[in-house]
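Our preliminary data section would be incomplete without showing what the modeling component actually yields. Below, a chain of 394 amino acids is followed by its predicted structure, encoded as tokens that our downstream tools consume directly.
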Amino acid sequence: MASVYKQKDSEFWYASIYIWDEKKKKRCRKRVSTKTKCEDQARAFVAQLERVAETARAIATQTVTKEYAEKLVLEILMAANVKVTGNLETPSIGECFARYLDIHGKKVKERSLYMYRGYSDSFLEWVPDKDLKLDWFDKSKAEDYYDFLLTQYAPKTAKEKFRYVSRVLETQVGEAISYNPCLKVSLTKHKDELERKAMSLEEVYKIIEYLQKPDSLLRDREWLKVVLLAVSAGRRIEDAVTMKSAAIKDGILTYGQMKTSKDITCPIVVPLWLDLLTVDTEYICPDLQKEFVANKTFKLSSEFTRIVSSAGVEQTVKVLSNTGRGVAQKTFHSLRHTLRTSIVSSGGSDAQADLILGHSESQGKAYTHSEIDAMRAMLERVFIPLEEGGRSLD
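Predicted structure:
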């Protein structure tokens, strides 16, 4: 395989070609000087290199080993007085994904980068050895990986993870691999969608009471704060676990949503909840924040689903028709639905719910005092009666 490129500080075109390195006993990428300033001439030269390589591959299938055939390429080039320099090894699967994250991490929002890291983690956990070369991941392996995803995730999520892997590999076609094996896999068509169901406030209080039991661990205490941020202000899991303590001032939570980059404001109306969320550390939940940054986002979501069952909340499951796998419907995101349902059932409007949850169309909205007062009054109608009815946290 060969490709043409031009270095920033040079007026000459170069080619990169993969050939056998006898000393390292590896197939490595070499730089070849084309000795031309014309791109068309350089590409013509690369085409000749490809024909030489094709001849070597044909020989390898007949009489000699692949390694010896690739060694022939170097000998032919040397005999033709072609200068070969550089010695960059073929990237491994782990190196390829790390490089992709490094390059694209500078181009996307923080939320997208967290998601990409999670996708990379799940793929590299599936790969038996991340030091394997990219050509190990052929069409058969790609099909196996997609089948594995379908047993672990809902179809829509499995497709998103698989397409991410495909995008990463696409950047290496012509360099480290001859084709993208993911493009050869037929993705499963499905009609099922993952439906999250809202919990009742009574179910949410069961979870809160479970997490603040006297013998609870520090981790449970942090989960308690994460749940309070979700149910009282509608925070998504990525916003809740990375919330800084400075975001709460004078009983009002102000922060920027990762998903939409919107600036959101919401009052915390239950005094005891506000006390629990007021801490002297940089992050409200420092341990969970560290885990989130360490690319374990999907594991946090799974952990909360287990917390739901441990708290005695009856879980509902949807069986996906194409895989037969059951998917939990009461997840962390359900808490946002719980808050919206509670607002509307307490006499609030969809517009008020949108404002609190961050669904409004305005970007970087400056909230007026009247809007914040209206939000506070609305949330007090939702939560204060339950507190006065004996469902407090003390």
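The mean pLDDT is 81. Residues 211 and 221 are 6 Å apart (CA to CA). Preliminary results of this kind motivate Aim 1 of the renewal.
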